[in-house]
Design brief:
Mean pLDDT: 90
Distance between the termini: 22 Å
Number of strands: 17
Number of domains: 1
Radius of gyration: 21 Å
CATH architecture: 2-Layer Sandwich
CATH superfamily: Endonuclease Chain A
Strand content: 15-25%
Shape: globular
CATH topology: Endonuclease, Chain A
Number of helices: 15
Structural class: alpha/beta
Strand order of the largest sheet: 4-3-2-5-6-8-1-9-16-15-14-10-11-12-17
């Protein structure tokens, strides 16, 4: 067996081991306390838990960019951006022009993107583009540049979408910097997604995540009160900032998601793309269904990765047979990563529920405790049901035997990807 064969064997063994380690006991709580049970778990695990936050749910890319650009225009000290990719297109041009204007005013601007994320889109930022951006006074760096042998970089990618402005305002969700979030994709249709704007103590945690990653990649440590200013009491929401950092907090995201589901007493509604969840999450959903919790899942008919929708159909059908209400989204591709539980708490961020996100990538989600925020997010999800139909046995059987076979095959392969 050659060196390549040995490497691939070790790769699959390591993935299998990490998948097996996901089967952990999830704590139960008393009937009256789904939100307090999750808070207890979060505190016990040492996950940053903050108070006095104000959250605004942003319904799609237009709302996200309008709000974010306005806050950038008003920035006084610094603007920090961390994305999976900045696609080299018109919305990115608008953003770079705005950032250049702020840099000229003396505002510190730092931007970071994932090298693989940049390579994987059809309009990447090239070396000459980066040089032009740097000439405008913007510090921009790649996270983990992809060099030969490329497979060395296949494990952990920076999938976060975080922006911090003056240490006071944060943005987090599922929306990258790309035109297709605004205009859709030919053959798929509209690209549906959600984001959030945060003020309050939770912004300090988003700042810390960004600056830790900046130091990891650039070797430069940035600190000081200007980056962590005191926060007025902006709102009444408590937020746990759940961050997945491979080799530092590798199981944090999947265990928090599983505990959030497992604590449910009444209802769960979630939207997540590439929905072939890791065993710990799927088992939590199955247990919730068996316990009589009303589980509603919004999945997309279509997707941007070949064959993955076939696996999503299969998983959705299996959960439907168990008792979940599964809604198939027909309005394009729903890329949102959101969940509401019992009307008491919710989550929004960058994490998918598949092996890629929960086993390998850098991810960040907010787990928000507040009935108003949860209701606001629930209404956005519920509105999407207008572009769905309820999955049934008859609907699933309408799919060709080939598509169903592909679904079976994909569910076998994706835990190792």
């Amino acid at each position: 067996m050659g060196r390549k064969g040995i490497f691939l064997l070790l790769f699959f063994v390591s993935v299998l081991f990490s998948s097996c380690s996901s089967f952990v006991a999830i704590e139960r709580c008393d009937w009256e306390c789904s939100d307090s049970a999750l808070v207890d778990y979060i505190k016990k695990e040492g996950i940053p838990y903050t108070h006095n936050n104000d959250v605004v749910m942003l319904d799609g890319a237009h709302e996200k960019f309008d709000s974010m650009f306005n806050d950038i225009r008003n920035a006084k000290h610094h603007i920090h951006l961390e994305y999976f990719n900045f696609r080299n297109d018109s919305i990115n041009s608008v953003l770079i022009e705005l950032l250049a204007r702020k840099a000229k005013e003396g505002v510190e601007v730092r931007a970071m993107f994932d090298a693989f994320g940049n390579m994987s889109n059809d309009s990447p930022l090239k070396k000459k583009d980066l040089e032009k951006i740097r000439d405008l006074g913007i510090e921009i760096i790649k996270f983990d540049p992809v060099n030969f042998p490329w497979i060395n970089h296949a494990y952990s990618r920076d999938h976060r979408k975080i922006v911090v402005i003056d240490g006071k305002i944060g943005y987090i969700g599922g929306i990258n910097v790309a035109d297709y979030y605004l205009n859709g994709i030919e053959g798929i249709g509209k690209w549906r997604d959600m984001h959030s704007r945060v003020e309050g103590e939770a912004v300090n945690e988003l700042q810390k995540i960004f600056l830790d990653m900046w130091e990891k990649e650039s070797g430069v440590r940035i600190e000081g009160e200007a980056y962590y200013p005191p926060h007025d009491e902006k709102g009444n929401s408590s937020i746990a900032v759940v961050d997945r950092w491979p080799h530092r907090t590798p199981e944090r995201m999947r265990r928090t998601y599983a505990n959030a589901i497992h604590a449910a007493k009444d209802s769960i509604i979630l939207v997540n793309p590439y929905f072939i969840p890791m065993p710990i999450v799927r088992k939590a959903l199955e247990k919730a269904i068996d316990d009589g919790v009303k589980v509603s899942i919004v999945l997309s008919e279509k997707g941007d990765i070949p064959m993955i929708p076939d696996g999503v159909w299969r998983v959705g059908y299996q959960l439907m047979k168990r008792g979940a209400d599964v809604y198939m989204y027909t309005g394009g591709f729903n890329h949102s990563k959101v969940m509401c539980v019992d009307g008491k708490y919710c989550t929004i961020g960058s994490a998918n529920l598949n092996s890629r996100s929960l086993n390998y990538d850098y991810e960040t989600n907010l787990f928000i405790f507040g009935e108003e925020d949860t209701q606001e997010l629930y209404e956005l999800i519920d509105d999407d049901k207008g572009n769905t139909y309820l999955l049934t046995k008859e609907k699933y059987k309408e799919r060709s035997w080939w598509r169903r076979f592909c679904g079976w095959l994909v569910t076998l392969v994706t835990p190792f990807m």
